[in-house]
Write a structure and sequence with these properties.
The protein is of the alpha/beta class. It contains 19 helices and 28 strands.
Length: 685
């Protein structure tokens, strides 16, 4: 049976609606949900003594249910369809004496001015505003003008809508410019009975006298679970907030019907600040055969560990879901800007929301487990936050790692998923007579966290590989008597500090473009300058160019560990200018003939990476590469002469000899750091 219009414009035709209701018969047609879903919102804005006008009433039961439940009785229903008005009069009969039905065009109503406290519209605006043609917009303007005319000051226009962007924007722009208060409510879904995948909204436009001049707009939005509205600053932001909720509803609908082939990511924001509080990834594991007890679980990532490979990469999360043994796993990352009381409070806060992401077929009352590492949400203490003119916002934070170790990290908030620098913290040594903390005591407060930097420990695998590359230096002695090293990129200073401390006669020059980073390294990461360690605050490009002109062939080793601030590129380390041929030739000029140039390359663009490698080979005839396992980083060891080439056996022997020379009695050494292991996977390009 043909019940839908042949073109959207027919929604405004009285003839279409007459035909529609004659063919449909007496069965109620409910646009956008029934009374139980709308009732919680309507109760806030419709009072028992209000006189209510329902425009485009159709044969919906909404007016009857409002009357029968005592919400309101003085209700006038109008519609352009004579057929439906006759039908509704017959259906209501004499049982609702205070309610009336009239054939009337809402674009030209016969009512006197200011005769109603409420105008209720369920889907009528959506039916009229089917496009943005001039004639359609003019019709909507007449509709809004008539609604404004018949409403009293303080009256409410309640419009139930799917909130398509052009419909919402038209309504918000019109009434906010008239000085009305605009509030948007999201209506709670009705589960399996919900007619539409998209959520239903109620626009609440409250009429105020228009104040001459530019009075501030009052624009608010309420989610289905919120009682208190959230104020937004502009009509554009209000439309965007509604769009976010629509996208979320579509996502939940999709996830409830089929497994997701690709991982889905979304942020849940704090209502007060609007900032992300939780970041969720939905991971379906095809390797797991779902049963009743392993369909769905939530995994809380301990604070500070969200950048680890297992939690911070797609492949890692896939492995986590498979090893956890659940068909669908939702990982939850906690944001540093917020406080979390513990696993129980997080579970209470998230339980309702994460169930909207449940897989198909999950029983409604199924208990869903919340998992974590050892049932712990981790420890994160922000020690310092600031803004650098060059690097943007950054934080220094202490986090608890896997086990009992704590780490200090530097993170640029422009790329918050990347740890810029990291150092291990030493456990505090108790003073004489000081008791050890009882095992049953709660987690340490920020003041109790260890604060001394362990300079013997290189946290970053790429730093370990860069130091191991010093085995490539010429000469029979694995530990040169004198060693001149240039490091471009300071960060927290771990790399130059390690070289300074373990190569006792090394002279280290560090070039750092951002003076804020020197302050951070000195204050928070135990970095200090001295006779053998000097920092030059300068652009690395300019510094190398100046040295090439003034003092060539002076460094045994040159190391580049400098990030790019342009996140749109496929290469985040180094900036492109550092691997252009003219500059690389300057690098070669200041390197001794038997020296080594070590480059930390982070490039996700395969074509760009091949281009960089080709340029390096043009300048440096001998090129080794060491891929860092589980990371994008690749360490390149570049040497000026092909005669410096060493076979794998010789390279391993020199690495073992260098490690033996660096391991001195009384000097701490990380037992997991084996130089020869770092060079086993090296390949010649």
């Amino acid at each position: 049976m043909d019940l839908l219009p042949r073109s959207p414009g027919e929604f405004g035709s009285a003839r279409y609606w007459d035909r529609f209701f004659r063919q449909r018969g007496r069965r109620p047609f409910e646009w956008y949900g029934a009374f139980p879903e709308l009732c919680p919102v309507l109760h806030k804005y419709v009072r028992p003594r209000d006189k209510v006008l329902v425009v485009g009433c159709g044969n919906s039961e909404l007016s009857e249910q409002m009357y029968d439940t005592g919400m309101c009785e003085d209700i006038v229903n109008i519609d352009v369809s004579d057929a439906v008005i006759r039908q509704m009069r017959e259906r209501s009969g004499s049982r609702r004496p205070k309610m009336s039905y009239l054939v009337m065009d809402m674009l030209q109503m016969d009512f006197p001015d200011a005769g109603f406290q409420v105008v209720l519209d369920k889907g009528t605006l959506d039916a009229i505003l089917t496009d943005e043609e001039e004639a359609t917009l003019a019709k909507v303007d007449r509709m809004f003008a008539e609604i404004s005319r018949v409403l009293q000051i303080g009256g409410r226009y309640l419009c139930v809508s799917l909130a398509q962007a052009h419909v919402l924007k038209k309504a918000v722009d019109y009434f906010s410019q008239e000085g009305w208060v605009v509030r948007i409510h999201q209506v709670a879904g009705s589960g399996d009975k919900q007619q539409f995948v998209l959520p239903v909204f109620v626009y609440v436009m409250t009429k105020f006298r228009k104040i001459p001049g530019s009075a501030p707009q009052i624009l608010e939005i309420c989610s289905e679970e919120q009682d208190k509205p959230m104020r937004v600053e502009s009509a554009e932001r209000l439309v965007a907030a509604v769009k976010d909720r629509q996208h979320y509803a579509l996502l939940c609908s999709q996830l409830s019907k089929t497994p997701c082939g690709e991982q889905v990511s979304l942020d849940l924001c704090d209502r007060a600040s609007g900032k992300p509080r939780y970041t969720l990834h939905v991971v379906d594991s095809p390797l797991v055969r779902p049963s009743r007890d392993n369909r769905f679980a939530i995994f809380i990532i301990p604070q500070g560990r969200e950048t680890e490979w297992l939690f911070g990469t797609e492949e890692g999360r896939r492995q986590l879901a498979a090893s956890a043994g659940f068909g669908r796993l939702v990982t939850v990352a906690l944001h540093r800007e917020h406080c979390y009381e513990g696993m129980a409070s997080i579970q209470a806060e998230l339980s309702g929301k994460v169930m909207e992401l449940a897989p198909p077929g999950l029983p409604a009352r199924q208990q869903v487990p919340f998992l974590s590492v050892g049932g712990d949400i981790g420890v994160r203490t922000v020690q310092h936050c600031d803004t650098s003119p060059m690097s943007g916002e950054y934080v220094v934070e202490d986090v608890k790692g896997d086990g009992i170790c704590y780490f200090r990290r530097l993170i640029f908030l422009g790329n918050r998923n990347v740890v810029q620098s990291e150092a291990r913290l030493l456990a505090p040594t108790p003073l004489p007579g000081q008791r050890k903390r009882r095992k049953d005591k709660k987690k340490p407060s920020p003041a109790e966290l260890p604060a001394t930097i362990d300079k013997s420990y290189l946290c970053c695998e790429h730093h370990k590989a860069m130091v191991a590359g010093l085995c490539l230096l010429g000469g029979p002695d694995p530990l040169p008597a004198l060693l001149a090293v240039l490091v471009v990129g300071l960060g927290g200073g771990s790399l130059p500090l390690f070289i300074h401390d373990y190569f006792s006669k090394a002279r280290v020059a560090v070039v750092e473009i951002d003076p804020s980073m020197l302050e951070v390294a000195t204050r928070w990461f135990g970095f200090s300058q001295g006779d053998r360690m000097q920092v030059h605050v300068s652009d690395g490009l300019d510094y190398v160019a100046r040295l090439a002109a003034e003092a060539p062939a002076q460094y045994d080793a040159i190391m580049f560990d400098v990030d790019s601030k342009d996140l749109t590129l496929g290469m985040s380390c180094p900036p492109p200018a550092f691997v252009e041929k003219p500059f690389l030739q300057k690098v070669k000029t200041i390197l001794k003939p038997e020296g080594v140039f070590v480059l930390n390359l982070v490039c996700r663009d395969a074509r760009l990476k091949e281009s960089v490698l080709a340029t390096l080979r043009e300048v440096f005839p001998l090129l080794y590469a060491r891929q860092i396992e589980g990371e994008v980083n690749e360490i390149l060891f570049c040497q000026p002469s092909p005669e410096q080439r060493r076979d794998p056996t010789e390279l391993e022997a020199r690495a073992q000899a260098l490690e033996g020379a660096l391991r001195q009695p009384g000097r701490p050494w990380d037992s997991s750091y084996v130089l020869s292991d770092m060079l086993q996977a090296v390949k010649i390009l």
